[in-house]
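Session log. Operator J.P. requested a structure for one protein chain; no other inputs attached. Running the standard single-chain path with token output.
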Amino acid sequence: MRRARGFTLVELLVVIAIIAMLMGILMPLFVRILGQAKLAVCRARLKSVGTAVASYQSRNDQRWPWIDNVTSDWSKVATGTNRDRSPAADANNGGERSITALMFLLVRDGEAPGLFVCPSDDSAGEERSLRHDDDGREETDEVFYWDFSAASKVSYSWQAPVKKGDRYVNGISAEDGSTVVMADKTPAASEPGWTPQALAEDTPPSQLRLGMSRNHFGGEAANLLRADLSVRELKRPDEGYEYDNIYTAAGKANRGARDAVSLDIARHLSVRDSFLVGPVGK
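Structure written below.
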């Protein structure tokens, strides 16, 4: 009776080489598919934020989440105004205002903090108990929570306040539906030395990616939420009424900002000049 012949060493090595070659071909495809799935989840979360905003507006005279601010520097103002402070808190520890505090108003309204975490943003994580209060005690009642525990735990940027004389205001109205009010976080959040560049119609994709959020594919795509609460995918950072760069201030009211590269909040003069800031920096 003839004995069954097994694989020779050479044949096994050939099979292993073929499998390795197939894995090398398929792995980038799997990574791409996973990235696209995370992009879709991120977009779904922004849609949920839009729903949360609509719910918030229905109970607050159609106003956007906002904390009044009348001083010259948004990033250095205590957030004691318009919120309850813990009785145990130090009178001098009011906590600084931040753009993320505006998003947290929706958490105060019942949304989970994890709604503001993009699954592609490895730096944020999926913690669900993120909050900040004035005294830092775990036993502090949640009614005194006013912001996320760390700006880095948020994956999105929000519309900066608009300068009106010596005041900083929300400014968004029903006529500003195309204004971008939220999107995947600014490149400055992951690259502190990031400098925005002027854009043109023929700006090559490699340069465009440098001006995009790093949440997805190293700047290839991003998701955004408009003032009309619609959500869409973004391929380049100049978007809005006059194709302004959503991560920069134009420096002139209602000016198209393909060439607007200012990061100075004092130059944010029109709500239609979308200027998304946070979760770090001004």
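Operator note: The radius of gyration is 23 Å.
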